[in-house]
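FW: tagging you since you asked about this chain on Friday. Here's the raw sequence from the shared folder, copied in full. Didn't touch anything.
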Amino acid sequence: MELNLNGMTTERRNPRTMQLDMMSELEIVTAMNDEDARVPLAIAKKLPEIAQAARWAVEAFEQGGRLFYMGAGTSGRLGVLDAAECPPTFGVDPGMVVGLIAGGEEAFIKAVEGAEDSVQLAEDDLRSHNLTSKDFVVGIAASGRTPYVLGGLAYARSVGCRTAAIACNPGSAVGKAADLAIEVEVGPEVLTGSTRLKSGTAQKLILNMISTTSMVRTGKAYQNLMVDVMQTNEKLHTRAENIVMDATGVERAEARAAIDAAGGSVKCAITMLLANCTAAEAQSRLDAANGHVRTAIGL
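HL: got it, structure written out here
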């Protein structure tokens, strides 16, 4: 069957950039900036759906489940990127947020021919991660019709998972295949069909919202501070000290001493200082509060 892309907004020509090849450098980047400015406005219309996806991620985490992102090409890479950034930012296990890209890790830097057209490959990828009904699967496809994503959503639903789909075309196939459709219509691209542009920007912003919101709601922040940040280099050691200082008002030496006493845990150090207790008691409070610093301080 011949694939018809004509009805997709993401495949249409943009009337504002019809003379793109005749524009100067400044005119091109200005046009791109103007088009990019339309993305947040389109996303604003879908905030309730994005919030629902974040809530489902929270509920998955609370019952020991995971968040899966599935996509091909740019969409898949964005999912893998968001998943990869969760462990250092929020101190979570790498298996808590999983990014799957059609064709596997190799496809992150080089296209794997035919991978995105395989429905079976998606099921195989999810089976290899022992998908269960506790998990939450988010399919990402700018076009809204990627077979790999459709296959993943179908298998996830058969297992009993909640599912959501992120697309940039209204009435998308992936939206219809999921429990929740997040369809953000950003309009035609500056360069016709190049969905790594506005569509990719929209997807990145939405993934930022889902992961950050779900992590904050599960206790990974105190105020607006990353209290579970991993200290894997000198910059992050300093950031950890700054976080403790900002949260408690102590000087750097006291912040570092508290972090050391807490076994490197920023969250525990903050709780120690604000609750005026030992590291052991601070950790006990945090355990009782399911990791929420604000609740632990009040216990």
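FW: The mean pLDDT is 94.
HL: agreed, and The beta strands are 67-71, 97-101, 136-141, 162-167, 180-183, 221-222, 225-226.
FW: great, closing this out.
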